[in-house]
Design a protein that fits this description.
The protein has helices spanning about 5-10, 10-45, 45-50, 60-75, 120-125, 190-205, 235-245, 260-270, 320-325, 365-379, and strands at about 85-90, 95-100, 110, 115-120, 140-145, 175, 185-190, 215-220, 230, 250, 275-280, 290, 295-300, 305. It is α/β, with parallel strands linked by helices.
Length: about 375
């Protein structure tokens, strides 16, 4: 470290050289860091562009349906009241994070000492006979994504998570009963990725065997933005949650304010509430939160890190840009494209493919000049 006295002893020319060196160093850092960060960002996968193009296997939903029904039936057969779930992790083992902790579960479940999590193997559930009733226990249960590694414990302050813990191995599917949040659920992050996650939630409620009759209302969204939703006013949406006549989902394009926010929170906090509310953006006093990224992942204090892109839609959506959608497949001759309504022998609407271009029939400039002179002479 050079002291002030030593610095003053340096020749003026050395002062200039040191200053120039410092400026060059700062400039190099200022240039290198943004380039490095930009390249790292450029290498990140853009799941928004391809995730909606894959179709979900029907067997996947029916497999989860059997797991949920077996969990409920095991309680019914043993004379237990089904405690409800906050989260269900489906992998080689099945883990149920319970809404009401229960010690001494029915067979084939084992429990943690506090009774918050029941576990069993997938094979054990296959031996349970199922009835034909589903009820409303899973009317707002959806798959959020798959685990990306060893899970993280829930935020200690997230009381709405009801003791959710994440300990599943990578690749397990994580489902959640959205109404158990007890308040608004916020989806933040990249706008396109947020809509992709919301679209998956809406799609599942309409197509999963256990939730096909669940109503989905939306406020501030255009018809078709997230699939099939029923657009309503904010007042009507809050009224539906307060009425609580059946389980349902309300999706808000933005957070309500003032008296509307207070009324909505009060309706969600009522005992026996069966509605869930998702806000596409930040909301004050949100109970669960998910930070969604374009790379196909999202993070949550309550549920850890998940891959939302692993949850496919029931019907794929073409998300290509217009120029990409109009581009012909590789190896195809664009000139051979036939105009609609023309026979195969006429690949081009302007004429036959073997015809030479017609000559321009307009008179040449010298011909027009001769014609004009002839007209003036005869006149």
């Amino acid at each position: 470290m050079i002291t002030a006295s030593e610095w003053s002893a340096i020749e003026p020319l050395d002062h200039l050289a040191a200053t120039i060196a410092a400026i060059l160093f700062v400039g190099a850092v200022a240039f290198t860091v943004p380039v490095f960060v930009g390249r790292r960002r450029g290498q990140a996968p853009d799941a928004v562009r391809w995730a909606d193009g894959s179709r979900r296997e029907d067997a996947a939903a029916w497999g989860v349906d059997r797991v949920l029904r077996a969990a409920r039936t095991s309680c019914v057969q043993a004379g237990f009241v089904f405690p409800g779930i906050v989260r269900c992790t489906v992998g080689v083992t099945i883990d149920l994070d319970l809404a009401a902790p229960t010690i001494g579960p029915p067979a084939p479940w084992t429990t943690t000492p506090d009774g918050r999590v029941w576990s069993t193997s997938m094979a054990s559930l296959q031996a349970i006979g199922l009835d034909d009733t589903r009820g409303e226990d899973f009317a707002v249960v959806v798959a959020l994504g798959t685990t990306v590694g060893a899970g993280q414990p829930a935020d200690a302050g997230a009381s709405a998570a009801a003791g959710v813990t994440a300990g599943a191995t990578a690749g397990a599917t994580v489902l959640a009963d959205l109404r158990r949040a007890g308040g608004p659920i916020q989806l933040t992050g990249d706008a396109d990725a947020v809509r992709a996650v919301a679209r998956r939630i809406v799609d599942q409620l309409h197509t999963d065997p256990w939730s096909m009759t669940t109503p989905v209302l939306s406020v501030g969204l255009r018809s078709g933005d997230l699939g099939t939703t029923a657009p309503v006013s904010l007042a009507d949406g809050i009224a539906a949650v307060r009425e609580n006549s059946s389980p349902g989902l309300l999706v808000l394009a933005s957070a309500p304010r003032g008296a509307n926010a207070t009324a909505l929170s009060a309706a969600l906090a009522l005992p026996g509430n069966r509605w869930a509310v998702i806000v596409l953006g930040r909301v004050r006093h949100g109970r669960w939160s998910f930070d969604v990224s374009r790379d196909g992942t999202m993070s949550s204090p309550e549920f850890g890190d998940l891959r939302w892109a692993d949850i496919a839609l029931s019907a794929p959506i073409d998300t290509r840009e217009p120029d990409e959608a109009d581009e012909p497949p590789a190896g195809r001759d664009v000139r051979a494209r036939r105009a609609p309504g023309l026979p195969a022998a006429y690949p081009d609407q302007r004429g036959r493919s073997d015809q030479r271009p017609r000559r321009d029939q307009r008179p040449r400039p010298d011909q027009r000049g001769r014609r004009d002179r002839t007209d003036r002479t005869s006149a």
